[in-house]
Amino acid sequence: MSSRRFFDRRRPSGRAPTKHRFGPGHLLLAVLAGAGYLLLSYIPLAGSELWLNVAWGSWILEHRALPSADPFVPLAAGMEVVDGEWLSQVILAAVDRVAGGEGLSLLFTLTVLATLLFLARACFVAGGSLFAGTLGALAILALAWGRFAALRPQSFGLLCFTALLWLVAANGAGDDEEEGAEAPKGRRLMLGVPLIFVLWANLDASFAAGWALLGCLFLGRVIDVLRRTRSPRAVLADSAMRRWLYVLEMAVAATLVNPYGVRLLVATHSAPGMDNLRQLPDWQPLEILGPGGRGLALSCVALLFLLRASHRRLAAAHVLLLLVFGWVAAHGTRFLGWYGLVFALVLAPHLADILDRWQQGRAGLWLADLARPSKIYLPLAIVLVWIALIFSPLGGAVLGHEGRTPRQLYGAAAPLALAEHLRDDPPRGLVLAPRHWGDWLAAQGPPGIELLATSGAGRIPRRVWRDHQRVAAGDAVWPRLLDRYRVETAVVDKAGQPNLAEAMRRAADWRPIYEDERAMVLARSLPEASPAAGSAEEPASPAPEAGP
Amino acid sequence: MSGAGARPRAALGGTTFVALQVVVIAAAVAWGAHLAARLEARRALPTLRAEPLAVGPLYDDPQVISDGDLRRVLARLPLTGDAPPIAQVDHSLRLWGRRPPFADPGQLPSWEMQRRLLDHRQFVLVHPGAQAPLLLDDPEGTGVGVRVGADDGAASHVDHTLATLAEIGMPLSTPVRTALRETTAREILERSLADFSLNQSEVEWSALAYALFLPPANRWVTSEGQEMSFDRLSERLMRERLPDGVCSANHRLYGLATFLRVDQQMTAGGEAPILANASRRRIVEFLKQATSAFVRHQHPDGFWNFDWPRAAPAAAEPTERDGDRLSDRIIVTGHVLEWWALAPGEVQPPRPVVRAAARWLIDRVDRLEDADIQRYNSFLSHAGRALALWRGRLPEEVELE
C-alpha cells in the first residue's frame, strides 16, 4: 500500500488535480537549495586533504602517468602506491588550474548540493513524500556535517553513494513485495549501477560502501522471502532476490575497471599503511560522549520513536543497513557520513507514513488546503534561486564584483605568506612541516618540495610516520630524529607546536630564516649526503700492496 | 508496487541459477586465492643462503704490523672473567671466530662464547640475575629476536649478534636454544628481516648480515610494505652526516665496504650483482670522501678521534672531552683500519697513513694494563681484527705466543 503524499498533487478531498505542478513543497525545496548553495559557496576551502589531492592531481597531469611512489615524500620510496583516488585528484587539479580557488569552491558547493539533492530524491522516492525527502537531507547535515564540510575524494564517493541510493530506492529497495507482486524490470538499475561503480572505483576508495548497500538489499530480500514463504525454493525463484544479486556482482566487477585492476580492491583494505591511518582522528572509534557518538545515539533514539509511531513495516534490508553501517560508523568517525545517508533513506518511508496520517487530521486538512499547487510558486522559486546565485561568489564574478580575498577563500588558518616565501626562496633538502601545512606546501609551495611526511599516512613507512608525529609534538629526541632523516629545513607552526618552536629556536645548529605571525622556518647546512659519481676529490693513494 | 497477478517466473530455473552462481563464486574464490598467493609471495622473506658469504682480507703488508707484533697484540685480547657482559662476548666471538680454545683456561674460548649467546640454559647459568632472556622467542610470532639493551645480559646493538654469526661463517643451521624450544640461527635472521625498518635506530649490522646471507636474493618487502634492496640500504647508510652513527660512523663505512666486496664477488662468480652501477659509484665516492677526511685529519702520532670529519685531534694525550677519550681514539683508529683492510683499492688511503695508525694501536695495546684491556675489550676487538686483516688473515688463524 503506498502512502499518500504530503503536498501531493492530488487534493486530499479527492477533487481532480489542478493543472499546476508546483506546490509550496517545491518552493520550500528551492529555498533550501538556494540557501544551501549560498551558504556552501562561502565556506572557506579548509581541510588539508584537499591540497594533498590537488598536488597529486597536478603531478599526474604534468607527468601524464600515475605515480609509482609518493612524489612529495622521498622516504616513501619503495612503498607500493595504489592511487584509487586518481580521478578525483585529476579533477581537483584541473579545476584548480583553470579556475583557481574559486573554481574549487564552486566544485565543492555543487558536489555537496548534488549529494543532498540526490539524497532528498532518494528519500522522496522511498517514502513518497517531498517533505520527508527534504527532512532526510537536513537530518544528514545535522548528523554528519563534518564529513561534508571539506572537499576531498570522499565527497565524490558520497555523491556516488547517494546516486546509488536514488537508483535502488527507485527500484523498490527494501520493499517487502507481496507474494505474486511483479518486480520492476530495473533497466536503469542494471545500467546505472555498473556506471556508478566504474566512476566510483576511480574517484574514491569508498566503493565498498556501495557493495555493502547492495549486499544488505540482497540479504534483506532473502530474509523477507524466507520469512514469508518458509521455502528456500521460493527464495531461489524470487526475481527480486536474483536482481539484487546480479546487481551486486555487476558492482564488484565494475570496480575492477581501474588502472590497477584487482590490486585496488586488495590495497584498499589490507595495505601495511593502514596502521598509520588508524592513528588519525578520522579513523578513531566514536566516543559515545563525543559529537559523532552523540549523533549516532540520538539517531537511534529518533529511529525508535519513529518506528513506534509508524505503521509501516521495517524491511529486513533496512535493518541490515542500519546494523552494518551503524557498526562501521561506530568504529571510525570517518564512516559516519555513510551511516547518515542510510539512516535518512530508512527513515523516509516511516516519516512519510506519520505525516500522511497527520495530514488526514484537521490540521492536516487545513495545511493541505494551504498547500494547493499554484502558478505563483514556480516563478517565486526561480526568483529565490536567482537571488541566491546573484549573491554567491560566482554571481559576483559574473557581475564584475571584486572576488574574495585569499584569506576569505582559503580560511584564516592557511599559511599563505609561508607558501609565498618558500616559492621565492625554495627550501634546501628534506623539509619537516606539520601535516596540515605539508599538504598545503605540496600544492602551493615551491615545485619539487620534498617533505618528511604529509597527511597521506597510508603511503608512508610506519616508522617515518611515527617519528614525524614525535618530532611534531616536540619530543625530546627530535634532534636525533631530524639527523636520522637528514632534515635540512623545518617549518614550525608556532601556535600549534609551541614546544618544538621553542626548542628549535634554542638549537645551535638551526637558524631561523623566516618568521610571520603563524609560521617559523629554520634551516641548517649539511654536507652533501651521497655524492654524485665522480664529484669527489681523489685522495693521494699509491697502488695497493700485493694481497695474501 | 502493484497488487496481485500471476507469480513472476524468473528467466533461469532454480537449478540453473544456483549452478551459475556456484560457477561465479568459485571463479571469484579461485581468483582471490591466486591473488592472495601472489601477494604472499611478494611479501615472503627472500631465499636465504645456508652459509654466509665470506669477505676476506685483501692486503698483506708486514710494514703495517710484523708477525711478532701481531702475535703479541692478539695474545693480550682474549676475554677473561666469569661473566663478562654479553656485549663483550659478542665482540670477542667476532674477533676470534671459531678458533680452538686458548692455552690459558682463564680465557673465554669461542665455543663457550657461542653457547652463551645461542643457548638460553648457558646464558641463565652465567647471568642468573639478567632482567630478561637474551633470546626473545614467541612461537606465534616470526623467529627469534636478540634483546638489545644497556645491561650485561643484552646485546649492545641491533642485530650485532646476527652480524657476528655471519662474519665468523656460522651457517643458518647453527643450533639455537631459547627458553621455549630448540631451533636454529635461521630464525634469528628471519626475525630480523620481518622486523626490519629502513629507518630503525640502527641498520649497520642488519645491513651487514643481509649482505652476507641474502645474495643472490636482492629484494624483499618489509613489514612496513616498503620494497628493500641493497641500493636502498646503501642510500640509508650514506644518508646521515658524518660522523653520526655508532662508533663515529665507522660501522656505516664498514657496511658500505662490505657491500662493494660482496657486489664484486657476485659479479666475479657470474651471478647478478647486488648493486646497481649508479649505487656502486656513489658508494665508492662516499668512501673516497671519508678516506680523504681521515687522511687530512690524522694526528701525527697516527690516531683519530670523533672529530675526524672536521679536524685532527689537538692533543697527543687523550682528554676527558666526549669523543677524545682514549677509548674514543681506540674506537675510531681500530674501526677505520678494519674497514680499510676490506675496502677495494680505489678507496684506499696512502699506505703510510695505515702504517702510522697501526703503529699507534700497537703501542697503545702494549701500554695498557690488563684491567684496561678487559674494560676496552669490545673496542680493542676491532683493533685486533684490523691488524690481523692487514696481514691477510683472520685472528683465529694466528698462532699466539
What's the short version?
Chain A is mainly alpha-helical. Chain A has helices spanning 24-41, 48-63, 86-127, 130-148, 153-170, 187-203, 208-229, 232-237, 239-254, 262-270, 274-277, 291-309, 316-330, 336-359, 362-370, 377-391, 393-398, 406-410, 416-424, 435-444, 462-472, 478-485, 498-506; strands at residues 430-432, 487-493, 511-515, 519-523. Chain B has helices at residues 14-43, 67-75, 86-96, 110-118, 120-126, 160-167, 186-195, 204-213, 230-239, 250-268, 277-296, 326-342, 351-367, 370-375, 377-389; strands at residues 135-137, 144-146, 175-177, 182-184, 219-221, 227-229.
What does this structure look like?
Chain A is mainly alpha-helical and 548 residues long. Chain A has 23 helices and four strands. In chain A, strand 3 (511-515) and strand 4 (519-523) form a beta hairpin. In chain A, helix 1 (24-41) packs antiparallel against helix 3 (86-127). In chain B, helix 12 runs parallel beside helix 15. In chain B, a hairpin with a 5-residue loop joins strand 5 (219-221) and strand 6 (227-229). Chain B contains 15 helices and six strands. By secondary structure, chain B is mainly alpha-helical. In chain B, the strands form three sheets. Chain B has a two-stranded antiparallel ribbon with strand order 1-2. A two-stranded antiparallel sheet of chain B has the order 3-4. Chain B has a two-stranded antiparallel ribbon with strand order 5-6. The radius of gyration of chain B is 27 Å and the shape is globular. At the A-B interface, helix 8, helix 9, helix 21 and helix 22 of A face helix 1, strand 6, helix 9 and helix 11 of B.
